[in-house]
Amino acid sequence: MTDSRAQGRGRFVTFEGPEGSGKSTQLRLLGKRLRGLNRGVLETAEPGGTDIGMQIRRVLLDAKNHQLRPTAELLLMFAARAQNVDEAILPALGAGTIVLCDRFTDSSLVYQGEGRGLGAEVVYEVDRIACRGLVPDLTILVDIDVETGLARAHKRNQRTQDVETRMDEQELAFHRTVRAAYQKLAQDEPARVRLIDGGKNETDVAEDVWKVIEPLLRRSA
Question: Which three-class secondary structure string do you get for 87-134?
């Protein structure tokens, strides 16, 4: 297995959560706080993270691509991820950087594995090829109820006129399946996956995230 400790002193922290949970905001707030402490930080996101990954992202998330099939969706997700791992994440970890990643393989487990019904075994098989065993040191799961999260996401999309709304526009049952799968993941892997209540105000959520992050930082100091 390849983890961040094998790559140097860097630490690999991922942020997960249903649509509209606020995870991306919390990632940015944590990155800013860490930089204020003079810690080296790389912020990245999936799908995306690299120039090639951003091209794949546009295919995956453009609302016009409603005909995209589950297996193709999964493979495109991991194509972007493989590029991000090799081009950005592993080099940063090797240099001792703290890598904050907005989504990683856990997203594929719940969105494609459960939500699309492809199954965890298929996801892990592709992960073995694309990521070669890279596992986050810590995963922050920002949880929120489906209705509140989707309302946030739709409001954001209207404000920004974003066209990357294909996942937001999935049926309600899909999003409920995703959230339930996330909660089960937190139950199955409590040492790695830490559940944070995303229904609180932004500042309180940030403090809850910091309480989870601090022990990891002490170990990497």
Answer: HHHHHHHHCCCEEEEECCHHHHHHHHHHHCCCCHHHHHHHHHHHCCCC
Burial class (CB in 10 A: 0-12, 13-18, 19+), 127: buried
Convert the pLDDT of each residue in 151-198 to its tens digit: 998 888 777 766 788 998 899 999 999 999 999 999 999 999 999 999
pTM above 0.70, yes or no: yes
Which fold does the domain 4-220 belong to in CATH?
A: Rossmann fold (3.40.50)
Tens-digit pLDDT profile for residues 5-62: 444 579 999 999 999 999 999 999 999 999 999 999 999 999 999 999 999 999 999 9
CA distance 24 to 144: 13
Say how far apart CA 162 and CA 91 lie, in whole Å. 31
Per-domain boundaries in the chain? 4-220
Q: Name the amino acid, one letter, at 200.
A: K
At residue 177, what is the residue type?
T
